[in-house]
Specification:
The complex is a heterodimer of chains A (354) and B (433).
Chain A lengths: L6 E3 L13 H23 L1 H28 L17 H11 L7 H15 L13 H13 L15 H7 L6 H4 L2 H6 L12 H13 L6 H21 L4 H8 L3 H8 L10 H21 L6 H10 L1 H4 L11 H25 L1
Chain B lengths: L12 H5 L3 E3 L4 E5 L5 E6 L6 E2 L4 E7 L3 E5 L4 E10 L5 E9 L14 H6 L2 H10 L12 H5 L7 E5 L9 H8 L1 H15 L3 E7 L3 H13 L6 E6 L8 H9 L14 E5 H12 L6 E7 L7 E6 L4 H7 L9 E6 L6 E3 L12 E6 L13 H5 L6 H9 L3 H6 L10 H5 L6 H12 L1
Parallel strand pairs in B: 1-14, 9-10, 9-12, 10-11, 13-17
Antiparallel strand pairs in B: 2-8, 3-5, 4-7, 5-6, 7-8, 13-14, 15-16, 15-17
The chains are: A mainly alpha (354), B alpha/beta (433).
Chain lengths: 354, 433
């Protein structure tokens, strides 16, 4: 009789875990949210998009797989086909690969796609110790690497204006409303009839993905809201200062990679601060940097750059001497002052540019 | 998942509706002579002595107080031995064999209402002290110290929230003894000179509010007592959180609620105060939950203090035999203590025993989702404390205020990666000393 009794084991409290919460679910949700954008990319660019997406995911997965097999070998473990550190099982690498692929222009050469993907996942993630330890967003790092190294090989397939995307046109002629003739706001919203990276064009589909993620609480909804809001706010203040119409902030929000970057790249929890307040300030800084690069920088687009720059400061946001779980009154006042100062700096800068 | 999430699934549906089983005739009881607050004791009886129910058999000595120990059955004193306490440590116990007569001790006499009305605070404190009453919600803090506070108290709050999942012993107790609890609250209010009384319950538990309001309307219409329906989240039953929701008073870390004119009593303690003052009885019985997914018949049992938990699991049809390993928990599933053996006895402060299947959760790397930070009821950042513990950075642990942690277990519960964050924060607390 004694033998049939179960053995009593000792554990520490609590003994319950939240059902239906896992890293796999979170990463899978991001992949699902990316599906409409992916399908639209394939619909619009056909085989070119398919090749880029498959190559990106395969390159990232292969790099990670080989890396972990080498690590195991160095650690003296026996070769196992199924490596336990490999993050394909929790969709993490698929998500990174997909995000990276969708930020690329459709005529990116195949070897550039592979180099960027491998570089991004190796230097962005693996070298820091894998999932959860990375400082930089792997997708953003890979993307920036190929922009800097192979910029001339990738040009957008343009039908409207020769050799320029919507933001490219705006970069040349900062406050000209002429850009509207070629890029209708409605087209920017739906993604039809405009050039751009394969996944960044259709605002409506990206917002759809964002709404899905928000409903599943698989990302921090404050980051995209504050990020986009900041860009809109700064653009609106410039529009008022320069006497431009309402089209100007709307144009800034809808064009380029802002929506895609805000919804899918900036919200990567690993490379964003941990507190509610920290995330809001992080997103605000992203918005400011993006807008400054767009307006004053040499590159027409600043989303990926600003994400990488701010990734470096995540540890600073979380430093124990000033991190706070709650948003205090003092923080609110300082934040308000910072917003006002930022607007002032923007307008001073604009008076020089314009 | 990246959200402030304080909803904990409560698993109470079944045992809440079942009637409470009466198991008040154990063959033998074991009375704790030590507990987590009292290390030394004097024993007044020896083997073979006859004792009566409610008789003082020993005196526990704590750091700053003494606590009489009462017999919970009438019968013959047996051997002293060592058994596990609720806190997971082995302590000295004394066996008393039941003679099934339940002869009450001479000191157990009812006080007439007219006499009770004239009792002063000091007299009530003396009665409660003599009956060895402690916080029955699990804290074990001597009640007479709370009751004897010199601060001016405006509001007395009865904590009937019972926010831990699986537990429903308080629920059943209120359902069966609403009058006694209101009577007990009346005595407390009289002792402290408080004008207002509040009974805090979860808004989900409407039957309780109905039955208490019914009593208040009919028999206790002269009392200024309200039933406060609080939120359903965890840890609503934590005193500070309860005051915040029920009264809007925020009490900073390290300060006593009495300074702010409020004092909280657990509902079982209130019932104990009623028994002590009205019937001059110590706590000799309590409502006890046997629950969990590896026990065959989860239910509430009314037991004598000192009953063996093993026996209670047996009456609940025993363990689920398909399980190779189980976890036996005394207290709630979020904060309770896991014990290595079921050879435990029910003490005054033990509310429940839970038997769980042993589930090994697969830990994944932290993805910094921030759920623990968003959910923490004391507003600290568990994940950052975890990282500080991993790199043994004491300054960071202190700067992140790890000492504020109440070990409610919510950070582990909400964790996306199923990491045992609470354990790391505990380590930090130990390191900070």
């Amino acid at each position: 009789m004694e033998n049939t009794l179960p053995k009593i084991v000792r554990k520490t409290s609590p003994y319950l875990r939240r059902p239906k919460a896992s890293v796999t679910r979170m990463m899978r949700d991001v992949t699902i949210a990316l599906l409409p954008v992916t399908i639209f990319a394939i619909y619009k660019f056909g085989m070119a998009a398919v090749v880029i997406i498959i190559l990106s995911i395969l390159a990232m997965a292969a790099t990670e797989y080989i890396y972990y097999q080498i690590v195991d070998k160095v650690d003296g473990e026996k070769f196992k086909f199924k490596n336990k550190s490999f993050t394909l099982y929790n969709y993490s690498v698929v998500t990174s690969g997909l995000i990276y692929a969708l930020t690329l222009p459709d005529n990116t050469p195949w070897f550039v796609v592979i180099i960027g993907a491998s570089f991004g996942v190796f230097f962005g993630k693996l070298i820091f110790g894998g999932l959860g330890q990375n400082v930089f967003n792997p997708a953003a790092l890979g993307r920036v690497f190929i922009v800097v190294s192979f910029g001339t090989m990738m040009s957008y397939d343009v039908d409207a204006v020769a050799g320029a995307t919507a933001l490219g046109v705006l970069n040349d002629n900062v406050f000209g409303s002429g850009v509207l003739e070629n890029f209708k706001l409605m087209n920017l919203f739906t993604g039809m009839g405009i050039p751009g990276s394969i996944g960044e064009m259709s605002a409506i589909l990206i917002i759809l993905g964002g709404v899905y993620l928000a409903l599943r609480t698989s990302f921090e909804v404050r980051i995209p809201l504050v990020y986009i809001g900041t860009v809109a706010l700064l653009a609106a203040s410039v529009a008022i200062y320069q006497g431009l119409g309402i089209w100007y902030p709307v144009f800034h929000v809808l064009s380029g990679g802002l929506l895609f970057g805000a919804v899918f790249m900036a919200t990567d929890p690993i490379t964003s601060p941990i507190t509610k307040g920290g995330r809001i300030y992080f997103a605000f800084a992203l918005g400011v940097l993006t807008f400054f690069i767009r307006l004053f920088g040499a590159y027409p687009e600043g989303v990926v750059f600003s994400i990488l720059i701010m990734n470096m400061f995540v540890a600073t946001f979380d430093y124990y001497k000033w991190t706070n779980q709650q948003i205090t009154r003092k923080q609110k006042i300082i934040f308000l002052i910072v917003i006002l100062v930022t607007i002032a700096i923007t307008l001073v800068g604009v008076s020089y540019v314009g | 998942m990246i959200k402030r999430s304080r909803q904990v699934r409560d698993y109470k549906a079944l045992d809440k509706t079942l009637p409470t089983l009466q198991f008040t005739t154990p063959i033998e009881v074991f009375i704790h002579l030590q507990n987590n607050r009292c290390k030394t004791y004097d024993l007044f009886v020896k083997e073979g002595d006859k004792v009566k129910l409610g008789e003082v058999i020993a005196m526990r000595h704590g750091g700053f107080f003494e606590q009489p120990v009462h017999s919970t059955v009438s019968g013959v004193v047996g051997k002293a031995s060592r058994k596990f306490h609720r806190t997971g440590r082995k302590v000295d116990v004394i066996q008393i064999t039941n003679d099934f007569h339940d002869t009450f001790h001479e000191s157990v006499v009812d006080r007439p209402d007219a006499l009770i009305k004239k009792l002063t605070q000091a007299e009530m404190v003396e009665i409660v002290k003599d009956k060895g009453l402690v916080g029955l919600g699990g804290s074990g803090f001597p009640t007479y110290i709370k009751l004897g506070t010199k601060e001016k108290i405006d509001t007395v709050v009865v904590n009937a929230v019972e926010c831990e999942p699986y537990l429903s012993s308080d629920y059943r107790m209120i359902l069966q003894n609403p009058g006694q609890i209101l009577e007990g609250l009346k005595y407390i209010m009289q002792a402290l000179g408080a004008k207002k009384g509040l009974i805090a319950i979860k808004s989900k538990k409407t039957p309780l509010s109905q039955i208490l309001n019914q009593e208040l309307k009919t028999r206790y219409s002269d009392m200024n007592v309200e039933v406060a329906m609080l939120g359903n989240h965890y840890p609503q039953g934590w005193e500070i959180e309860m005051f915040k929701w029920a009264l809007g008073i925020e009490i900073p870390h390290g300060e006593l609620p009495t300074k702010y004119g409020v004092v909280g009593f657990n509902v079982s303690t209130t019932y104990g105060i009623y028994n002590a003052i009205k019937h001059n009885l110590p706590v000799y019985e309590r409502h006890f939950t046997v629950n969990g997914d590896a026990v065959k018949f989860p239910q509430n049992i009314r037991v004598r203090v000192g009953t063996s938990v093993k026996k209670l699991i047996e009456i609940s049809d025993g363990y689920d035999e398909t399980q190779k390993e189980v976890v036996v928990v005394l207290g709630g599933p979020m904060m309770g203590t896991s014990v290595v053996s079921d050879d435990v006895v029910v003490s005054k402060t033990t509310t429940s025993v839970l038997v769980f299947k042993n589930v090994e959760y697969k830990e994944e790397p932290c993805v910094r989702c921030g759920s623990c930070v968003y959910s923490c009821p004391v507003h600290i950042e568990p994940v950052q404390i975890m990282n500080a513990v991993k790199r043994n950075d004491k300054d960071a642990m202190k700067g992140l205020e790890a000492y504020k942690c109440i070990e409610c277990g919510l950070c582990t519960y909400v964790c996306t990666s199923k990491i045992h964050v609470t354990d790391y924060v505990r380590k930090a607390k130990i390191k900070l000393g």
